[in-house]
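Retro notes, structure queue

What went well: the backlog is down to a handful. What didn't: a couple of records were mislabeled last round, so from now on we paste the full input next to the output in the thread. Example, using Glycerol kinase from Halomicrobium mukohataei:
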Amino acid sequence: MPDTYVGAIDQGTTGTRFMVFDHSGNVVANSYEQHEQIYPKPGWVEHDPTEIWENTKAVVTAGLDAADLDATQLEAIGITNQRETTIVWDRETGRPIHNALVWQDRRTTDRVEELEEAGKIEMIREKTGLEADAYFSATKTEWILDNAEPLKLESARTRDLRERARDGELLMGTIDSWLIYNLTGNHITDVTNASRTMLYDIEGLSWDAELLEEFDIPESMLPEVRPSSDEATYGTTDPDGFLGAEVPVAGALGDQQAALFGQTCFDAGDAKNTYGTGSFYLMNTGEEAVESDHGLLTTIGFQMSGEPVQYALEGSIFITGAAIEWLEDVDLIKNAAQTAELARSVESTDGVYMVPAFTGLGAPHWDGRARGTIVGMTRGTRKEHIVRATLESIAYQTRDIAEAMEADSGVETTTLRVDGGAVKNNFLCQLQSDIIQTEISRPEVDETTALGSAYAAGLAVGYWDTIDELRDNWQVDRNFQPEMAPEQADKMYGRWDDAVERSRDWAHEE
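Corresponding output:
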């Protein structure tokens, strides 16, 4: 198939990327556009859904043009997305009624604490596999319906958003649903994104009536849930639209599950860690939804057409790559590439620990009120020590997850496949191998999130026939073996818990 390809829209936290892959999984087109980060109040994070859609059209068009490709050469399009980020829009006009509430947004922490006080945490965990947290879509949707400015009607009157929702006039969805809706006109999500809403029964594979009642969200607002790789497809692009072609949209996966798929972690025990804005460590547990006793999430890994759901254990770390961005924001570094040079310039952090809990702590701690903390500084502390401590914090947080993962699954990780922007940093990869005392395997194509959604879409339309073809495409760029003595790694990690404890339960309104 020399002249046809599969496209992938990768809608992430900081920007939107469009990539085109050939049959060997090689990148033949790549275009990217950032979007605005909106911070109305401390702990609040929003995106403009209309800007995201406009950027999506722009990167698809630019990517095809730069590679001299025509949209008719795309056999399918796959979508991957920042997961829990939530949009509510008008069914008739397609217009959002409020900015998207981003997965990092903490404004519903009080509501989560109400659920805890009401004794509903265990019920939520049993149905959804999730810890009750402001991270997920349920409380975000509830907040929008309760607090957004209602849309003005032609008569200049306003109607309560709750009433409009009950009358079937409003739709909600994660970013995948928003893009599928704008591309095809259909209101659809896949099982992986549904599993991140805190509204979906991951074993019954249905929206849960008790949870919908708890958050007062009518089922009519919710998208239809489909397999991640769907032979029936989610619809096609409009031949009279911006692409000028009828292309099937046939695959969707939340970004972390897409990376699991792109890393070809198709078998129980396979694990990967993606280093982006945050880091997300997933292990395939097969057809069994493994319940976590150590603060991990039980989630849906993926589903292919006509096949059972594959589950995963997940450790969600909210801030890793974003901690490096913060170093830039406060002028400690000029660019991310500088971190390795600065970190190598000192032998250690001299006892400095940085806990990047800027938006709370995720797994395994789950503390929405934790905040970023630097401890152990002396008069001799220099920026090199803080930069090194920031890189070490990424490795320590990953070790937290690795130990919880082994305790829950009973499977010892011998190799961890890694991807995402931060893994271009050889110093970080080696540090990660040292701290968790495990081989780190970096693939040649590190944009595995986009690749995973392309694989899902391509399998659905027969561009690839079997997952064995995808396994054959996976190639190692470099393996990193532990070079640090286990005793030294344990000693460095030993004070990490002390530093985390200092960051906890910090943010309280006056």
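Agreed that this is the format going forward. Reviewer comment attached to the example: The CA atoms of residues 90 and 170 lie 5 Å apart.
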